[in-house]
Amino acid sequence: MPFRPPGSAGWRSALRRATFLGLALALISSASPALAEKPAEARKFFQQQSTEHAPLPAHNPSKHFGAPQFPRPSMQAAPAEECDPARFTGNTGAALVDEIKSAGTDCINTLFSLSGADARGAFREEQMITVANAYRDNAVDYPGDNSTSTAQLVLFLRAGYYVQYGDPGSVGEYGPELEAAVQGALDTFFGNAESGTVSDENGEVLAESVTLIDSSAENGRYLDVVERLLTAYDSSYDQYWWMVNAVNNTYTVLFRGHQFPDFVDAVHADPGVLDTLHAFASQHLDLLGTDNSFLTANAGRELARFTQDEALRAKTRPMLTDLLGKSDLTGPTAPLWVGIAEVANTHDGENCAEYGTCDLPQRLVDAVLTVEHSCGPSISILAQQLSADELSATCTSLTGQDAFFHEQVQTGGQPVADDHNDTIEVVVFDSSDDYRTYAGAIYGIDTNNGGMYLEGDPAQPDNQARFIAHEAEWQPSFEIWNLNHEYTHYLDGRFTMHGDFAAATSTPTVWWIEGIGEHISYAYRGQPYPEAVEEAGKQTYRLSELWDTTYDNADTTRTYRWGYLAVRYMFERHPAELGTVLGYYRTGDWAGAREFLTGTIGTSYDEDWSNWLAECAAGACSTP
Q: Alpha-carbon distance 313 to 315, whole Å?
């Protein structure tokens, strides 16, 4: 899924592709909030493109450029529970509340994707008021765990705000009656001393309730809750995954609170939250370099974000200077230093000399990306730490892929018209943590992904294409994560897809863009793709549905695994027709390709596709 940085100046080239790690491991951005690691409870990832306030998606804060850093989730995503929306759309009042409380949180989690009549049936204002009042009544005697199904009520309300924001025409408007009901519920919950119980059983409910503050746009009203949680945190929290998330979710309340006048007014009236953030970062420097490093780094980032408010700069700047002096741009304290520098330069850049953060991207490149290597006339490597053997292996893998790609895709070795991206710069960070710490500040990208290809404008002769990656430190031997997938994006953009990323995605082309990335990566390396084979057996999508895949309507499974299956099917069963599609793509005739796929082919291959999927699942796809 792509992320579009807000603006493109100098070396901040426009994004072409970004690869999520939902296929094996999701890496969370230094600029994007998400879930902490919990092996059995990882959730799907969504991307919120707008910087305008929008409620956060299921069990997972949205991904925003410049937002606080969150930890890495599980290496394996839990499957979504089957959940019939009729349980909620067909009930009202006490019956609705009973259905919500009897459902698992995984079931409620699926409601974030409701639309149309189902969205209205579940989340119209009277339904939300009913649930908010139930949450209030439940919170009176909240026991400090989810034995009374409090989390389900909170998550339902979050889902309602999320869906209503995206589809207000279906859901209808929300007004002051719901606002009052939610305020009453949150007041009651946070007023119950049991909400502060330090345990995972309470932490889940607490974390969702903190996020509901933001979903309901009550950020200014609950600044005291933010301060309370940050002040209460100590090492006893660290053994409880949900409690750490609850504390970390306060940073989302702060990050997005700046969009609301009442929040700004509340901070002006009592700027104590700035002291709380400074104290948290100062008192928890020991977390830097540990699994919970993000807690301290986020305190610095959110303190720095207040420099956007001129009235608060006099108070904020000395605190930031103090924290910068206690940290460094390299080493274990780098997440704090870089986080503060990046955000302060964004909002108070004219005073970078006071912070000592001027020329930040170049300073970081000079300090961190110290290895330079050429693989030949078209590929250069800029790395944090690669040995001579690792550089040689990387070059061999990349240069060998060229011929394989051209043979598979039948490019004739000719780039598309007006493409000057005749060289690629491969940037490799030493670990996923280093990628999260530095890549956003250097290249202006979101790092909630497994790598990113920046195509820029290929029509400009001085454009520099690059992709940014990192070593997979969790693997038993040396590997640059998604190396061949990202390099395929470069080759595809230069030899198959005319124009820049915006042009290439002006119609639904994601089935090909990510499908060919996966197909080439696995086939070139001679590796099977068992996760895709498993999906084939589920027969989830008709081929005609996959022509409509976009980054906005698909999860990682549909984007990558089903993209792979669609591309592999076309190569194996309909290479001539695939050649026709690519002919349109190479000339930038996106409408022509779309008409051929949805009109000429349409549903005519669906039956054969189903048969092919069955064969694939039975073993035909076990080899590349």
A: 5
CA 198-201-202 angle, to 5 degrees, is 55
In this structure, of 76-80, 262-266, 276-280, 450-454, the range with the lowest mean pLDDT score is 76-80
Confidence bin at 70 (pLDDT 50/70/90): low
* Residues 6+ positions from 480 with CB-CB distance below 8 Å: 394, 428, 469, 470, 471, 472
Instruction: Give the integer Cα–Cα distance in Å for 272 and 223.
Output: 9
Contact indicator for 264, 309 with CB cutoff of 8 Å = yes
Q: For all residues of the chain together, what is the average pLDDT? A: 89
- 218, 227, 486, 535: the active-site residue: 486
Mapped onto helix, strand or coil, the DSSP state of residue 617 is helix
Token digits of residue 441: 């500040």
Contact 336, 296 (CB under 8 A): yes
Task: Read off the pLDDT of residues 171-181 as tens digits, 9 standing for 90 and up.
Answer: 999 999 999 99
Region of poorest pLDDT, from 57-61, 513-517, 548-552: 57-61
DSSP annotation of 480? B
Low-confidence winner among 190-204, 335-349, 446-460 (lowest mean pLDDT): 446-460
CB atoms within 10 A of CB 537: 12
Question: CB of 468 within 8 A of CB of 454?
Answer: yes
CA distances from 353 to 16, 278, 345, 496, 623 (A): 33, 21, 10, 45, 57
Whether the model clears a pTM of 0.90, i.e. scores above it, the answer is: no
Contacts of 266 (CB under 8 A, 6+ apart): 220, 221, 223
275-323: pLDDT as tens digits: 999 999 999 999 999 999 999 999 999 999 999 999 999 999 999 999 9
As separate numbers, helices (DSSP H) first and strands (DSSP E) second, the chain gives 30, 6
Q: Which of 521, 623, 609 is nearest to 569 (CA)?
A: 609
Q: Which domains does the chain have, with CATH numbers?
A: 1-27+361-497 (3.40.30.160), 505-624 (1.10.390.20)
Can you tell me the distance from the alpha carbon of 257 to that of 451, in angstroms, rounded to the nearest whole number?
30
Instruction: List all residues 6 or more positions away from 490 whose beta carbon is below 8 Å from its beta carbon.
Output: 421, 424, 453, 455, 465, 467
Q: What percent of the chain has pLDDT over 90?
A: 84
439 contact partners, CB below 8 Å, separation of at least 6: 30, 427, 429, 445, 447, 452, 468
Long-range contacts of residues 315-318, Cβ cutoff 8 Å, at least 24 apart: 315/271, 315/274, 316/274, 317/348, 317/351, 317/354, 317/355
Q: Is 486 a catalytic residue?
A: yes
Residues 6+ apart with CB under 8 A from 429: 368, 383, 384, 435, 438, 439, 468, 469, 470, 471
In angstroms, the first-to-last Cα distance of the chain is 25
Contact 155, 206 (CB under 8 A): no
Residue 557 makes CB contacts below 8 A (sequence gap 6+) with 22, 535
Tokens in use for 372? 């330079």
